[in-house]
Amino acid sequence: MNYELSTEEQGLFDRVKDFADTVVAPAAYEYDTKRRLPMEIIAQMGELGLFGLPFPESVGGQGKSYFQLCLAVEALGRVDQSIGVTLEAGVGLGVMPIYRHGTPEQQAEYLPDLVAGRALAGFGLTEAKAGSDAGATQTTAVLDGDEWVINGSKQFITNSGTPITRFVTITAVTGEKTAPDGSVKKELSTIIVPNGTPGFTVEEGYDKVGWHTSDTHPLTLTDVRVPATNLLGARGRGYANFLQTLDEGRVAFAALATGAAQGCLEEALRYAKERVVFGEPIGSNQHIAFKIGRMQARVHQARLAWHDAARKLDAGKPFKLEASIAKMVSGEAAMDNARDATQIFGGYGFMNENTVARHYRDSKILEIGEGTTEVQLMIITRELGLAA
Q1: For the Acyl-CoA dehydrogenase/oxidase C-terminal domain, which residue ranges apply (predicted)?
Q2: Cβ partners under 8 Å of residue 14, min gap 6
């Protein structure tokens, strides 16, 4: 496995890193305090082509790789995880299901604006009693003539209530099916629900510990009617389709977490060289130096893990195991580095205007979102042939 970046890949990373440092970082604290997604920055990301990176030029995309999307997500995550996850979810949970499973008509209607960043979309999977256990989904969709009638609720849905959110793809129980062993199971399907549809309510945004800038809402669906043609993919394939969506999303999520870990490392290293105590930079203290050394090791490990998963994804090779490893390793690296960086900064690290303080609040979700650490361990052990 070659972990060197090509000239094109390095150029992309450098461009997004420069954008992150000069545009995103200076505004991060202001928007974090306001708890508002900066739409002008999202528009600039669209102009840079970031939302269209992994899609072919035939649908308005940039014709690049999923690996290159992950590079962009990592570069943004260094300075602002909320902006990084807006791109990650916007592509992986918003655009990708339409690109993978949409009809030609659905693609023609939605892809141009989505890949250009003029519109965003969400993916409504999680419910109060259904997250890791998607089979417990309670939202229902019943065919009534040529319309689906949908009732239920969703939780923690990213990019669902922005000014440019076009729709949310929701998972719903559309019937029952008999498994090969004779058991009867829920038939899950995915359906496109446009924002503004009567009965579809985007509730007030959450008061979150972190990711204050990221747009996240609960959703309520009460007798929501959408055309039968809004079915996304084959009926009954919702479970399989969202598993593919999550596997791919975990790779980009790992890149986001790696960026967060890298950002903490950079801030801690800078401060250790600048902060003088008793006439010496604190970085000359072996305890501080060793802590930063461990931070570097975590970043290196996390980056190698997501690179491996992304290269296999792009090559069309199995990557489920590698995606779960990358997601787990990088999430833990981000949380550990955030804690260590905050400790190195001391009292300054406890001030919200400090980048490491924001990473400290933001990074915990990296061990939870896109499948908890425990879910990743379950997947890893199952891939090893253990009945975990």
Answers
A1: 236-384
A2: none
